[in-house]
Each structure stands twice: as structure tokens, then as C-alpha cells.
Amino acid sequence: MSRIGKSPVQIPDKVSVDINGLTITVKGPKGELKRLMPEGVDFVQKENQIVVTPSTTKRYSRERHGLCRTLISNMVQGVTDGYSKKLEIVGVGSRAQVKGKTLVVSAGYSHPVEMTPPDGITYKVESNTNVTVSGIDKEIVGNEAAKIRSIRPPEPYKGKGIKYQDERIIRKAGKSGKK
């Protein structure tokens, strides 16, 4: 059995969970998330917690045990607190701004790159070089942050580009001159 899957998911008072077969709906103060879980796992709601158990002893069932528990836990945390990813833009002349809902990034190309957020995602820009992506679905927040980073990934020589705030860029030495 999965060590992660063994621990039950605690449900706060403000959150309601509806289990309908393999579809789990979580409603909370920040919104509602709905997800279809993979087969091979059973869900039981007891008072203010959800217990996830593998339905069989087969490998595919045991593989999905911890995954489903973590997905439910992420949904509960998303509707209560939400998720956010912070990115930094490094480089002369590189900046970002929000126009309406779209994020406009000037990252050294001949044109600014515009990104429209999917439903439930918001962009926030502080001081032209710090971008915060926030929402209730951890997966979508991470994907949107990765898309923004892929506009201009950080390069190892000068460190220019878009990077996560806590990301360390391993620097390389430049070419040495003729000797």
C-alpha cells in the first residue's frame, strides 16, 4: 500500500465534498472543482475526512492509490487557500504588464507576447518584473506558469530570461580568450 494513500484527507468545515462513483466534486469558499478519478480506487467519506483505498490488490490499483489521495488533497487545499506560482523576469528591457485579463510579456522578441488566462486563473504583475499566477486548480496554475516561463527560459551564461522565483540557475563560465 502507498504510504501517502494510507493517510486520510481532512475536510475543513467550509468545504463540502460530493462523491458520485469516480467523480469527486469539492466546493469551498474560493470555488468548485470537479475531477474524474482513475479506476481501481474506492473512496469512503467518514465525518470530516475521506479515506482512499485500493479496490483490488492488483498493481494498477496500488499505483493509483496515493495519486488519488493527493489529487483530492490538492482539490481541498485549492478551494480553501488556492495556489500561486511566482515568476521573475531577468534582463534589460524585459518586462510584463496586465492589460484587462491578458498578460503582455516583452522578453526581447520583435513583438510582445500576449497570454490569455483560462477560466479560474488570474495574472498579477508587481514592479514589471514579478508575475504571480494564481487560481484554485494546482495543475492549471503550474501549467500556466510553465507556459509563461517557456516564452524565454533562463539561459546559463548571464541568467537572463523568465524563471520561477525560487529557481536556481546554474551558471556556466563563458569562453576564455585566446592564449
Explain what the structure shows.
With 179 residues, the chain is of the alpha+beta class. The chain has three helices and 13 strands; from the N terminus they run αββββββαββββββαβ. The protein has helices at 3-6, 59-80, 138-149; strands spanning 9-10, 16-20, 23-28, 31-36, 41-46, 49-54, 83-90, 95-99, 102-106, 113-115, 121-126, 130-135, 161-164. The chain is elongated. The mean pLDDT is 90. InterPro entries: Ribosomal_uL6-like, Ribosomal_uL6-like_a/b-dom_sf, Ribosomal_uL6_a/b-dom, Ribosomal_uL6_bac-type, Ribosomal_uL6_CS. Part of the 50S ribosomal subunit.
Features:
three-stranded antiparallel β-sheet, rRNA-binding, 3 helices, Large ribosomal subunit protein uL6, four-stranded antiparallel β-sheet, 13 strands, Outer Surface Protein A, domain 3, about 20% helix, single chain, about 180 residues, alpha+beta
